[in-house]
Specification:
heterotrimer, A: about 190 residues, mainly alpha, elongated, B: about 575 residues, Cytochrome C Oxidase, Chain A, about 60% helix, globular
């Protein structure tokens, strides 16, 4: 029976956890892709929504982009540290990722509160519907990633789950980078066009 | 639970009741849970049929046995029109998402996939457990929607805005929100399941089990998983948008607020069309397993079937606008979608021809699984052919949203889900529950179902050609429909008979659990790996990992004494140099 | 993952930040509307490719993972293109 366990059958193939995460990301590409496609199409149909779009702050969003991209760097560093079996570096890099992700959310909250105060609510028009829908869905995913990374960070700090940590950091990392990639497309489509 | 297998599996303490039967991570338990969920929800889906059909046949009458349904849904046995819409909506939603998918994918798929590939469980057992409890929650949410003020969703299972996007149009507020939530949970559940199926099949096949030696049921489950994974995203996006429109007043779909209702239809059907193949393929897979076993012949055209399935899967992504021919789409879109729709009948024709060729010259035993498989063949043919009628955009202008469409999709969905599903249940029941079903009751169930099914749905083509629209609660309101009312009445009587015909099945299914003859490991003398272990399989499935030596349908070989060679048993050595050609796949 | 033939994660980060700057520049410089949108989108694609290739390790994965990543993208593009006649032009 020892041969037939889930972990043991991978042979030279892709580990099950990584394969599963990629399949999951495929469906996420379709979800965000669908929402972004709808946004692009409706925006083109309506003639650009220039007037409404002028009210979003490119500066804040650019800063947020920098935060998220940097958090991707720290995530990769955490994975490299696991390979090097350097527990302290793993914990620190995961912590940095968590803090940067939380900062992203904090900036987003500040941004939302500003817009809401000016009367740019989700029901203020089609552009705003998509704005809140897109950035909101994305922010939910960032939140999920922050929670996952925080759990990994705690596990690493307490020296628990070490044999599993290597894979889990990699898989959560894939998810985190994906969330970053979504923002890489979201940012220009919403803020720069 | 065999002690030998448990000991060999390692030092597990015996789990408590909750871990073993409720929150189990064993794919066999989870598969059974899915199946029971689907069968129970079928009662609800079927009950709605009774009220709907009675209303259509005798619109001004009091519907018997409905006294317990409170106002405003029913006033002293008279149906409220809004409640009619709710029943129609819930019938579709329940049947597609909470009956077909749980029984065929979650139930048979979960149970069979690891067994058929010689694995001890799924790649991600805890994810598997989570997927079941997610759909269970989804089902609870959907059932709860019946009890909230305003009642359940009423905008059709397709939920088109503007009707669905603003509560003031339907009078249903919480019901529709809960409907969206239930669907979202259901999608999440099957995403988890799909990830698991694909990862398991790619990573955990037994030694020697290459992809082209997989049983066709596995191919169907995998294709269904890929189709679902790749198609559901845009609808999840759409569902989020619809929920926001309803609750926050956003402007995605409502024209009054600057939105586009056609966008929803595109997002829905981009998913919706691959979805019907997701529902359809596992049922076809069950038939493809039953046919060789009861004809004692290898499947004809294994590779053709695999390639056709993949082609059908790919094509299924580029036919969706055939649901929207009269929705106001650009007419230039109608032509290419018409072409692709008619094209997609080709792989299905290949499939059906391969099935007929498998039967041809076989030594056929007309046991219940085989009867249902043949029943599938005959009825699905009608469904496929009428699909071509619908797929021609010019004709569809007249028959869209009529009973012609209802007849078409019931002649595709019912054969695959119910005939295919019953074929699978009667075939694999011994493996799953370790008991044999009663053969006489099974045959009775088949004949009653087959005859009444055709009596219900064949007249619908006549209704549709006569202009009878869908989703109307009182045909007598339309002068031109009055002459068709006798047809409606005939259909209703047949429909009630169809519902009653399921009683032998229920009695058989439940009774055999207690009084059924104990099943041997391989009651049908079949070749695939699930039959190479006990019925039901022990924890860990196989005492030792089987090695696969050849394809899955080695029946009636001239060079063996037995008329079948299981997959884990080597073929006899060839007499001379030419080894490969003789391998019958 | 000390692959000497590949740039380090920090190098990639520097490129990503530079591209962010470039994207912002395209938005603020006086290009024509279409040119600007095209340039910004191209920058985004390059950034995404960098993250996918180097941070998500697509550079060292096999065909299956590439396919799992690529096919949805193609589907989304295909879906968007086929909806243009209806959503963009048919208001």
């Amino acid at each position: 029976m020892a041969v037939a366990t889930a972990a043991g059958r991978d042979e030279a193939r892709i580990p099950s956890g990584k394969l599963a995460m990629w399949w999951f990301l495929a469906s996420e590409i379709m979800t965000f892709g669908g929402l972004l496609a709808a946004f692009v199409l409706c925006r083109l149909a309506a003639g650009g929504w220039e007037e409404q779009a002028a009210h979003v702050s490119t500066r804040i969003a650019a800063f947020n982009t920098a935060l998220l991209v940097t958090s991707s760097l720290t995530m990769v560093r955490a994975h490299e540290a696991v390979d090097a079996v350097d527990r302290r570096r793993v914990t620190l890099n995961l912590l940095a990722t968590v803090l940067l992700g939380a900062a992203f959310l904090g900036v987003k909250a500040y941004e939302y509160s500003g817009e809401l105060a000016h009367g740019f609510t989700p029901w203020a028009g089609p552009f705003w519907s998509f704005y809140y829908g897109l950035t909101g869905l994305h922010a939910l995913h960032v939140f999920g990633g922050v929670v996952a990374n925080a759990a990994l960070c705690a596990a690493s700090a307490r020296n628990r789950l070490w044999p599993h940590l290597h894979h889990r950091v990699e898989y959560v990392g894939l998810y985190w980078h994906f969330v970053d990639v979504v923002w890489i497309f979201l940012f220009p489509l919403v803020y720069l066009s | 639970m065999s002690h030998v297998a448990a000991a060999a599996h390692g030092h597990h303490p015996e789990p408590g009741f909750w871990r073993k039967y409720v929150f189990s991570v064993d794919h066999k338990v989870i598969g059974t849970q899915y199946m029971f969920l689907g069968l129970v929800m079928a009662l609800l889906g079927g009950a709605s049929v009774y009220v709907i059909r009675w209303q259509l046949a005798w619109p001004e009458s009091q519907i018997p046995l409905t006294g317990w349904i409170p106002e405003p849904a029913m006033y002293e046995g008279h149906l409220d029109p809004a409640f009619y819409n709710q029943l129609v909506t819930m019938h579709g939603t329940i049947m597609v998402f909470f009956v077909a998918m749980p029984i065929l994918l979650g139930g048979l798929g979960n149970f069979l996939l690891p067994l058929m590939i010689g694995a001890d469980d799924m790649a991600l057992p805890r994810l598997n457990m989570m997927s079941f409890w997610t759909i269970f929650t989804a089902a609870m949410v959907l059932v709860a929607s019946f009890f909230v003020p305003g009642g359940p969703a009423s905008a059709g299972w397709t939920g088109y805005p503007p009707l669905s996007a603003d509560a003031q149009y339907t009078g249903v507020e919480w019901g529709l929100n809960l409907w969206i939530l239930a669907l979202a949970l259901e999608f999440g559940s099957f995403l988890m399941g799909g990830v698991n199926f694909l990862t398991t099949a790619i990573n955990m096949r037994a030694p020697g089990l290459s992809f082209f030696r997989l049983p066709l049921m596995v191919w169907m489950q995998l294709t269904a998983a890929v189709l679902f994974m790749l198609s559901v995203g845009p609808l999840i996006a759409g569902a989020v948008m619809l929920l926001l429109d309803r609750t926050l007043g956003t402007s995605f779909f409502l024209p009054a607020r600057g939105g586009d209702p056609l966008l929803w239809q595109h997002l829905f059907w981009f998913f919706g069309h691959p979805e019907v193949y997701v529902v359809l393929l596992p049922g076809v897979g069950a038939v493809l397993e039953v046919l060789p076993a009861f004809a004692r012949k290898p499947i004809f055209g294994y590779r053709a079937i695999v390639y056709s399935t993949i082609v059908a899967g790919v094509l299924s992504f580029i036919v969706w606008a055939h649901h929207m021919f009269i929705a106001g789409i650009d007419p230039r879109l109608a032509t290419p979608f018409s072409i692709t729709t008619i094209l997609i009948s080709v792989p299905f024709a290949v499939l059906l021809f391969a099935m007929i060729a498998t039967l041809w010259g076989g030594s056929i035993t007309f046991a219940t699984p085989m009867l249902f498989a043949i029943g599938f063949l005959v009825t699905f043919l009608v469904g496929g052919v009428t699909g071509i009628f619908n797929g021609s955009a010019a004709l569809d202008i007249f028959i869209h949203d009529t009973y012609f469409v209802v007849g078409h999709f019931h002649y595709t969905l019912f054969p695959t889900v119910f005939f295919g599903g019953f074929a699978g249940i009667y075939y694999w029941y011994p493996k799953i529950f370790g008991r044999m079903l009663h053969e006489g009751l099974g045959k009775l169930h088949f004949w009653l179902t087959f005859v009444t099914f055709n009596l219900v749905f064949l007249p619908m083509f006549r209704l549709g050609m006569g202009g009878h629209m869908r989703r109307i609660y009182n045909p007598l309101n339309y002068e031109f429909l009055r002459p068709l009312e006798p047809v409606n009445q005939f259909v209703t009587v047949a429909a009630i008979a169809l519902l009653v015909s399921q009683v032998p099945f229920a009695l058989n299914f439940l009774g055999a659990l207690v009084w059924g003859r104990r099943a041997p490991a391989n009651p049908w003398n079949a070749t695939t790996l699930e039959w190479a272990t006990a019925s039901p399989p022990p924890h860990g499935n196989f005492a030792t990992v089987p090695t696969v030596h050849h394809g899955p349908y080695e029946y009636s070989r001239p060079d063996t004494a037995a008329d079948f060679v299981p997959q884990h048993v080597p073929l006899p050595a060839p007499p001379a140099a030419e080894a490969v050609g003789a391998a019958g796949i | 993952m000390t692959d000497d033939r590949y740039p380090t994660s920090t190098t990639i980060w520097i490129w990503l930040m530079l591209l962010l700057g470039l994207g912002l520049a395209c938005a603020w410089l006086p290009f024509g509307r279409t040119t600007a949108v095209f340039a910004i989108f191209t920058v985004a694609v390059v950034k995404a490719a960098l993250v996918l290739r180097h941070y998500m390790h697509l550079r060292s994965e096999g065909l299956l993972v590439y396919a799992i990543a690529a096919i949805p993208v193609l589907l989304v593009i295909g879906m968007t293109l086929s909806l243009v006649p209806d959503i963009v032009f048919n208001r």
